[in-house]
Amino acid sequence: xxxxxxxxxxxxxxxxxxxxxxxxxxxxxxxxxxxxxxxxxxxxxxxxxxxxxxxxxxxxxxxxxxxxxxxxxxxxxxxxxxxxxxxxxxxxxxxxxxxxxxxxxxxxxxxxx
Amino acid sequence: xxxxxxxxxxxxxxxxxxxxxxxxxxxxxxxxxxxxxxxxxxxxxxxxxxxxxxxxxxxxxxxxxxxxxxxxxxxxxxxxxxxxxxxxxxxxxxxxxxxxxxxxxxxxxxxxxx
Lengths: 113, 114
Prior knowledge:
The complex is a heterodimer of chains A (113) and B (114).
Chain A: E1 3-5, E2 10-14, E3 19-21, E4 24-26, E5 33-39, E6 46-52, E7 60-61, E8 64-69, E9 74-79, E10 88-97, E11 100-103, E12 107-112
Parallel strand pairs in A: 2-12
Antiparallel strand pairs in A: 1-4, 3-9, 5-6, 5-10, 7-8, 8-9, 10-11, 10-12
Chain B: E1 4-7, E2 10-13, E3 19-25, E4 31-38, E5 42-51, E6 54-57, E7 64-66, E8 76-78, E9 87-94, E10 104-105, E11 109-113
Parallel strand pairs in B: 2-11
Antiparallel strand pairs in B: 1-3, 3-8, 4-5, 4-9, 5-6, 7-8, 9-10, 9-11
């Protein structure tokens, strides 16, 4: 069975600093997709970044980047130059089929001034 | 575009009552889905649809019914609400053509069953 694990329930970082959120997953699939979603206090789910498993190059989106280690089944999210607006829950998600999207339990990130 | 809309935003039910959570999207997306979010458990897939007239079960379908008569609408029905269905419900849609496509989520409905 596929699983997604986020081992950090809560993290905090000072504004302008860098923080890394961890995510590991377990699968026997070879082709799949990985996502990080942000959920601010408004409750809206927002896609932050995505990675295709067959691509070795790590995805980047402005201040957000991932460290994708396929052999280790690890998919961490790095947020550079943290901003107060980054305060949110962050969910790692794994998908290998149309009806098979698995979310982790989330990491609550607090950015303080 | 309004994106994905959900109504109501909040709802309180008594055990045994029925209700329908509404979901609509104006992006002409074929794929729509319903998730529930419980504390400490992330989001779990309830039901999904790959097009009008086609629905299928996700990870936690028991106690919920869906139908898809149009591309735009995908209502979720609770036939006999139970306290275990207290949760936040999200509807999402995606343009088919690949798993890589982004899922767009609605704002959620917070449901409390007493």
